[in-house]
Amino acid sequence: MASANLNIMIKAARKAGRSLVKDFREVENLQVSVKGAGDFVSKADREAERIIKEELRGARPNYGWLGEETGEEAGEDPTRRWIVDPLDGTTNFLHGLPHWAVSIALEHKGEIVAAVVFDAAKDELFVAEKGGGAFMNDQRLRVSGRRQLVDSVFATGIPFAGRGPLPAALQDLARLMPLTAGVRRFGAASLDLAYVAAGRFDGYWERGNQPWDVAAGILLVREAGGFVEGIRDGDDPLESGRMIAANVQIFEPLAKIIRARD
C-alpha cells in the first residue's frame, strides 16, 4: 500500500506525463527549426513543472521545493522538500527520441524517503518508499544478480557541449569498456538509475549530476537491493552529483575502476 505522499507524487507525475506526451507528439513537426523546437520544448518543460508544483504544493503547502526550472523555495516545514525534474532527458525529447522521464523525490531530514520516476512514453512507472521496496507498474524490482564485469552492461553520462569533466569520463570508458559487455549512454540519469533497480543495467556511474536528476533514482536502486555511493569515499552522492550505483556483487569491482583516478 502506497503512502498518502507517494499517491500524491504518482498523481502529479502522471498528470505532467500526459501533458508531455501530448507535446512530444508535436516535436517531429518542429524539427525544421532548431530554435523553434527548442523554444517549444522549454515551454513543455516549464508547463510540466507548473503542473507538478500545483499538485504537490497544493496537497502539501508546507513542504519546501527544489525544481530544475523554478529553483529552490523554503517551506514552513524545514524538514521536508520536494525535489523535481519535470523532464529528464530534454535533448532526447527535442529529437523525438522516446526516452525521457518525470522525476519526483521527497526528502525528509536530508534523506530521500519516497520516489517516482515516470517514463510516460513507455508507460512505465517506477516507485519506491524507504523500507517498502521498489516497484515498476506494481511489479517488485530487484537489481541484477550478475557477478562478473565481463557479463555486465553499464550506463553513464558523457559530458557534452563543454559541460562537465569530459577527460575524466573518457578515461573511465577506456578503463572499463574492455572489461565489460558494454556501456550505454541513454541521456536520462533518472532512467539509468531506474534501469539499475530493474536489473536492466548492472551498474551506473556519472560525475556532474544535479540533485533533481538523481534523487528519485537513488532510492529506487537502494530499495531494489543495490548500492549507491559517491565516487569519492564519504561523499554524499545527492549533494556531490558524483556517484556509483550497482548490484552488490558488481559494486566493488566497478568502484575500484572508477575511483582509480579520484
Describe the structure.
The chain is of the alpha+beta class. The protein has two domains: 4-140, 2-Layer Sandwich (Fructose-1,6-Bisphosphatase, Chain A, domain 1); 149-261, 3-Layer(aba) Sandwich (D-Maltodextrin-Binding Protein, domain 2). The chain has helices at residues 4-27, 34-59, 90-94, 166-176, 189-197, 211-223, 237-240, 248-258; strands at residues 63-67, 71-73, 77-88, 101-108, 111-119, 124-129, 133-136, 139-140, 153-156, 182-184, 203-206, 227-230, 243-246. The strands form two sheets. Strands 2-1-3-4-5-6-7-8 form an eight-stranded mixed sheet, with helices on both faces. Strands 10-9-11-13-12 form a five-stranded mixed sheet, with helices on both faces. A hairpin with a 3-residue loop joins strand 1 and strand 2 (71-73). Helix 1 runs antiparallel to helix 2 (34-59) and helix 5 (189-197) packs parallel to helix 6. The longest helix is centred in the first third of the chain and has 26 residues, at 34-59. It is globular and about 50 Å long.
Task: State the shape.
Answer: globular
Instruction: Give the helix/strand class.
Output: alpha+beta
CATH hierarchy, class of the largest domain? Alpha Beta
Strand order of the largest sheet: 2-1-3-4-5-6-7-8
Overall domain count: 2
Largest sheet features = 8 strands, mixed
Query: Helix-strand pattern, N to C?
Result: HHEEEHEEEEEEHEHEHEHEH
CATH T-level topology of the largest domain: Fructose-1,6-Bisphosphatase, Chain A, domain 1
The total count of helices amounts to 8
| Overall average residue pLDDT | 92
**Poorly predicted ranges (pLDDT <50, ≥5 residues)?**
31-35
Instruction: State the end-to-end distance.
Output: 42 Å
- The CATH superfamily of the largest domain is identified as Fructose-1,6-Bisphosphatase, subunit A, domain 1
CATH architecture of the largest domain: 2-Layer Sandwich
CA-based gyration radius: 18 Å
Oligomer: single chain
